[in-house]
Design goal:
Blueprint (H helix, E strand, L loop, with lengths): L9 H18 L6 H18 L4 H5 L5 H9 L1 H8 L10 H11 L20 E3 L14 E4 L16 E4 L1 E3 L9 H14 L3 E2 L7 H4 L5 E5 L15 H8 L4 E7 L10 E3 L6 H7 L7 E3 L9 H14 L5 E5 L4 H14 L5 E5 L10 H6 L4 H14 L7 E5 L5 H9 L4 E4 L1 H6 L22 H4 L4 H25 L13 E6 L2 E4 H4 L7 H4 L5 H6 L13
Parallel strand pairs: 4-13, 5-6, 6-7, 7-10, 10-11, 11-12, 12-13
Antiparallel strand pairs: 1-14, 2-3, 8-9, 14-15
Helix pairs in contact: 1-2, 4-5, 6-18, 7-18, 11-12, 15-18
The structure holds flavin mononucleotide.
């Protein structure tokens, strides 16, 4: 272990040293027993911090780590000065994280006294309740994924549909997350019967250990299914895709936080284990190109989906993207009509999404926010009468039951969360993911730091967070007088425009009618302007 990382144990080392010296002096009768006792108590506290399994921060920062809880207890704001870089650049507020921590730790997440929101502030949103609420027996809301091909259709058929939870773990690679974080997430998914997306880093031994359902993500690096040149390799694909644990396959086109930007895992982080999972050489730079080599047009993308569905033995295959140029999405939609091939699902990732690391401009200024992209994708599929065949998932700052309800009202069939589940395994939003010095062992490959994260303890928090969030969703659905979150519609959500003006989502996000795009030019401007620019055989616009 490099000398530098011993610093975090220095407080403990000093306490041990003082305990020995002061006890010696006391034994020699040179000083009273007060100070030696204090030093011995501190040492005992340090030993306790190192052996306990519940608090990763204390395992990585014995004794001094307690300052974090002290600050949290006395003045939460103070904590940010000492532990978090800059208050106004934190993606998730203290309230949002508190809800996740409470649900993960099975603590009461009810709050006294009333809301902290200014309900007359522009942008405030709420769900309307019903005078006749329903009674919810279960919170285990599910959606079937995988469409059976219509008679005469040439497209491959999904013969192994998957019953997905409406809330799942979003893609985060082994490499951006530690082995113990992956183990905790996957065990939590196994215990709660929900899905765990591998991220583009492919399937590692840590994903396999507990057998939790996997969504295998295939990015432009084709990790886990690539040949020596980094191109797609059918044989290797079949070997992984036919694993029983792999329930769905997701092609990654882009990610909201860094769309159009490839990725690179520096050589120093490409351990033997990561290399094994990805099918690359260890300790050499691991590149994810900005675009795919297996396809380059919308039609070729759908043919690739069809091919993967056949090779996987009929498992649901879909793609994940962050909406960029509208004509490119329209081109994929037109290719669905032209080829008769449809993905089984589409994951819409919002600009507000997270990443292990990306340039500031990409994180702040490229890509479409989730709600706008979700509405466009939903409406387009409805307008082409393809909505029944294609499920939609949404990701982008979904951490509470209201976030799920809102996304499902806008057209999502389920939601994925990445950073929500990172909080559940102990992330404190230190925003040190890109440094390898994560204080809680979540986003690091440092073997010592990740030891602080105990998968046994943290997997139960993953399960609790998932279950308690869905229990809260069931209460929201019941209060609205409904029986399943899929019944939520834009008309159920209201948005404040100004002190005196509120709008139903039904007017904020107008819906297309079924088939409206097939025989006429749809009204919303985005269709009038960009629909005709799209062509199924190229992502380039018709100009
Ligand atoms: C540490 C980290 C690693 C990620 N890795 C991937 C990845 O490999 N593939 C991918 O499609 N998205 C990746 N994402 C994006 C998430 O899957 C997700 O789509 C996005 O963060 C939005 O969800 P959130 O707001 O709940 O975090 C990653 C996000 C984080 C925070």
């Amino acid at each position: 272990m490099p000398l530098i990382s011993l610093i975090r144990y220095s407080t403990f080392a000093i306490a041990v040293f003082l305990a020995i010296v002061l006890t010696g002096l006391c034994a020699a009768g040179l000083i009273g027993w007060g100070w030696p006792l204090a030093a011995l108590l501190l040492t005992a506290l340090g030993v306790y911090d190192l052996v306990q399994r519940r608090h990763s921060v204390l395992r990585n920062y014995p004794i001094i780590g307690h300052l974090r809880f002290l600050f949290e207890f006395i003045r939460p704001e103070l904590r940010q000065y000492f532990f978090e870089s800059d208050t106004d650049s934190i993606p998730f507020s203290r309230q949002q994280r508190a809800i996740v921590y409470q649900r993960a730790k099975q603590q009461i997440d009810a709050r006294p006294f009333g809301t902290h929101f200014d309900v007359y502030e522009s942008g405030y949103e709420w769900l309307n309740h019903s005078a006749v609420p329903t009674k919810q027996e279960s919170h285990d809301f599910r959606v079937p994924v995988g469409a059976i091909a219509q008679a005469g259709e040439s497209a491959s058929s999904c013969t192994q549909p998957y019953s997905a939870s409406v809330f799942n773990i979003s893609a985060m690679s082994f490499g951006s997350l530690s082995a113990n974080a992956i183990r905790a997430l996957n065990r939590g998914a196994m215990l709660g019967h929900f899905a765990h997306d591998t991220g583009e880093g492919s399937i590692s031994r840590h994903h396999r250990e507990f057998g939790g359902d996997l969504i295998w993500e295939i990015g432009s690096g084709y990790f886990g299914c690539r040949d020596a040149e980094g191109r797609f390799d059918e044989e290797r694909f079949v070997a992984n895709a036919t694993l029983e644990q792999v329930r769905m396959i997701e092609i990654k086109l882009s990610q909201g936080a860094k769309p159009g930007h490839g990725g690179m895992l520096p050589a120093a982080k490409v351990t033997e284990e990561i290399a094994e999972a990805r099918g690359i050489a260890a300790w050499s730079d691991c590149i994810s190109p900005a675009s795919h080599s297996a396809f380059s047009t919308p039609i070729e993308l759908l043919q690739f989906i069809d091919r993967l569905r056949r090779l996987s033995g009929g498992k649901p295959v879909g793609f994940k993207f962050a909406l960029g140029h509208p004509w490119e999405w329209f081109a994929i939609a037109k290719a669905m009509v032209a080829t008769g091939i449809t993905p089984d699902f589409i994951v819409v990732d919002g600009k507000e999404g997270g990443t292990g690391a990306a340039p500031a401009e990409f994180i702040d200024r490229i890509g479409t926010p989730m709600r706008d992209a979700l509405v466009l994708v939903h409406n387009t599929l409805v307008g082409l009468r393809l909505r029944e065949r294609v499920r939609i998932a949404a990701a982008g700052k979904v951490v509470t039951a209201f976030d799920i309800a809102r996304a499902m009202a806008l057209g999502a069939d389920w939601c994925n969360s990445a950073r929500g589940f990172m909080f559940a395994v102990g992330c404190i939003q230190a925003q040190a993911c890109h440094t390898g010095k994560c204080p809680t062992g979540v986003a690091t490959q440092d073997p010592q730091r990740q030891k602080a994260l105990d998968p046994g303890d943290k997997s139960v928090r993953v399960l609790n967070f998932h279950r308690n969030t869905l229990k809260s969703l069931a209460e929201l659905v019941a209060a609205a007088g409904l029986s399943h979150p899929s019944q939520l519609e834009p008309m159920h959500i209201v948005q404040r425009r100004s002190r005196g003006e509120v709008h139903s989502y039904a007017t904020v996000y107008p819906r297309l009618q079924p088939g409206e795009l097939l025989d006429s030019e749809a009204e919303p401007a985005v269709y009038r302007v960009f629909w005709s620019m799209a062509r199924p055989d190229s992502f380039r616009p018709v100009t």
